[in-house]
Automatic annotation (TrEMBL):
<feature type="binding site">
    <location>
        <position position="126"/>
    </location>
    <ligand>
        <name>L-histidine</name>
    </ligand>
</feature>
<protein>
    <recommendedName>
        <fullName>Histidine--tRNA ligase</fullName>
        <ecNumber>6.1.1.21</ecNumber>
    </recommendedName>
</protein>
<dbReference type="InterPro" id="IPR036621">
    <property type="entry name" value="Anticodon-bd_dom_sf"/>
</dbReference>
<dbReference type="Pfam" id="PF03129">
    <property type="entry name" value="HGTP_anticodon"/>
</dbReference>
<dbReference type="InterPro" id="IPR045864">
    <property type="entry name" value="aa-tRNA-synth_II/BPL/LPL"/>
</dbReference>
<dbReference type="GO" id="GO:0006427">
    <property type="term" value="P:histidyl-tRNA aminoacylation"/>
</dbReference>
<feature type="binding site">
    <location>
        <begin position="82"/>
        <end position="84"/>
    </location>
    <ligand>
        <name>L-histidine</name>
    </ligand>
</feature>
<dbReference type="InterPro" id="IPR015807">
    <property type="entry name" value="His-tRNA-ligase"/>
</dbReference>
<keyword id="KW-0067">ATP-binding</keyword>
<feature type="binding site">
    <location>
        <position position="258"/>
    </location>
    <ligand>
        <name>L-histidine</name>
    </ligand>
</feature>
<feature type="binding site">
    <location>
        <begin position="262"/>
        <end position="263"/>
    </location>
    <ligand>
        <name>L-histidine</name>
    </ligand>
</feature>
<dbReference type="InterPro" id="IPR004154">
    <property type="entry name" value="Anticodon-bd"/>
</dbReference>
<dbReference type="InterPro" id="IPR006195">
    <property type="entry name" value="aa-tRNA-synth_II"/>
</dbReference>
<feature type="domain" description="Aminoacyl-transfer RNA synthetases class-II family profile">
    <location>
        <begin position="8"/>
        <end position="329"/>
    </location>
</feature>
<dbReference type="Pfam" id="PF13393">
    <property type="entry name" value="tRNA-synt_His"/>
</dbReference>
<keyword id="KW-0436">Ligase</keyword>
<dbReference type="InterPro" id="IPR041715">
    <property type="entry name" value="HisRS-like_core"/>
</dbReference>
């Protein structure tokens, strides 16, 4: 029988990789909390309608990538491919409109069935920040600043570039949408199959096409900025002035779009050249029409998500955990006193490793391999004298310490 393996596109987090993951989450939450965000955690699966309605039945995510299944009760459920839709559902089902404005942050696993590649897995992890109930551009500025400060706190500020665009308001987007339909309709025979499907329902998605033939047509397609009304231009100018005032640099990218109709105004990505083709490490946008589309009240929204796996490939290795104190009992009579000492030290804030079996030499060898700083040896003679033998595992120097004062005597090894 073949040995069990992880499912393709999934991976285990252990050791340094787990520490990188944890460091990113801790850093994100620390920065988000300073911005006044509160934690939210939504289920990893929802009724399929939550994602089908929000991401669009014809989108690649829904049509090709979601893990959708029928449960034993006959309900169609989908593992979440992203967090925003679940947070919007929680806002509606939880009756949170009375609590606006809301600033929410979360993290966890997402699921998409796609070809695994560098920085892109079928189970991957994201951090996520959302602001609900603030239609003013101040929210755009604050969320962008949060993203910049988060990346800066990870030491990546100089290795990413902020690309920024505006999608305009509903009127502007509708005018631009029709202009794209008119333009691409003249080239139907040259469009890829996917772009033909998007032409009437989601023409802005054609601008994202990776097909070489499509990209040649996109080069001469109408520009969104030519269809922005005055209100949209004013909104975007305020966002840009805010970023300038905060010293957050950016590059305008008119081809950076979000294809679904509930998106509006600001869209952005922090990108890097360090990861090859998978260059986006954090992306976001304003989605003022999303909650209304889902059946809730008209509510402004804006947010971003960042892939933890991609960030983990870029950051410096986090500091190793504190070196442990190893407790090594000598003889059966010392087993219970060793347990008591270990618990006391742990309660005092020490990292403690215990040897479970083997002679003293084997236990000391395992303690050294585990990276322990000192070993506390206790046997019959030590118990009788109320002391322990403390061996420095780096220098091999030994000292005798009183059992009753170990918490303070080991302070240098906390």
């Amino acid at each position: 029988m073949a040995a069990l393996q992880p499912v393709r596109g999934t991976h285990d987090l252990i050791g340094e990789e787990a520490r990188r993951h944890d460091h990113i989450v801790r850093t994100f939450k620390a920065v988000a909390h300073r911005y006044g965000f509160q934690d939210i955690s939504t289920p990893i699966f929802e009724f399929s309608e939550v994602f089908h309605r929000t991401l669009g039945e014809t989108s690649d995510v829904v049509s090709k990538e979601t893990y959708t299944f029928t449960d034993r009760g006959g309900e169609s459920l989908t593992l979440r491919p992203e967090m925003t839709a679940g947070i919007a559902r929680a806002f509606i089902s939880g009756g949170l409109a009375k609590d606006l404005p809301l600033k929410l942050c979360g993290h966890g696993p997402m699921f998409r069935y796609e070809r695994p590649q560098k920085g892109r897995l079928r189970q991957f992890h994201q951090v996520d920040a959302e602001v609900l109930g603030v239609p003013e551009p101040q929210a755009d500025i604050e969320v962008l600043a949060l993203g910049a400060d988060f990346l800066g706190a990870l030491g990546l500020g100089d290795r990413v570039e902020l690309k920024l665009n505006t999608l305009g308001d509903t009127e502007s987007r509708q005018n631009y949408r029709q202009a794209l339909i008119n333009y691409f309709s003249a080239y139907k025979e040259q469009l890829s199959e996917d772009s033909l499907k998007r032409l009437d329902r989601n023409p802005m998605r054609i601008l994202d096409s990776k097909d070489e033939g499509d990209r040649k047509l996109v080069a001469d397609a109408p520009r969104l900025h030519d269809y922005l009304n005055e209100a949209s231009r004013t909104f975007f100018d305020k966002v840009r002035r805010g970023l300038d005032a905060l010293g957050i640099g950016y590059t305008l990218d008119e081809r950076l779009v979000r294809g679904l109709d509930y998106y509006s105004h600001t869209a952005w990505e922090f990108v890097t050249t360090d990861l090859g083709a998978q260059g986006t490490v954090l992306g976001g946008g304003r989605y003022d029409g999303l909650i209304a589309l889902m059946g809730g009240p008209q509510t402004a929204g804006i947010g971003f998500a960042a892939g933890i796996e991609r960030l983990a490939m870029m950051i410096e290795p986090p500091a190793a955990p504190a070196r442990a104190v190893a407790i090594v009992p000598i003889g059966e009579a010392a087993e219970l006193p060793a347990l008591q000492i270990a618990r006391r030290l742990r309660q005092a804030g020490y990292t403690v490793e215990q040897g479970y079996r083997g002679n003293v030499g084997k236990r000391l060898e395992r303690a050294s391999k585990a990276g322990a700083r000192v070993a506390i040896l206790i046997g019959d003679d030590e118990i009788a004298a109320g002391v322990v033998k403390c061996r420095d595992l780096d220098t091999r120097a030994e000292t005798m310490l009183a059992i009753d004062s170990l918490e303070t005597a080991l302070a240098d090894h906390r």
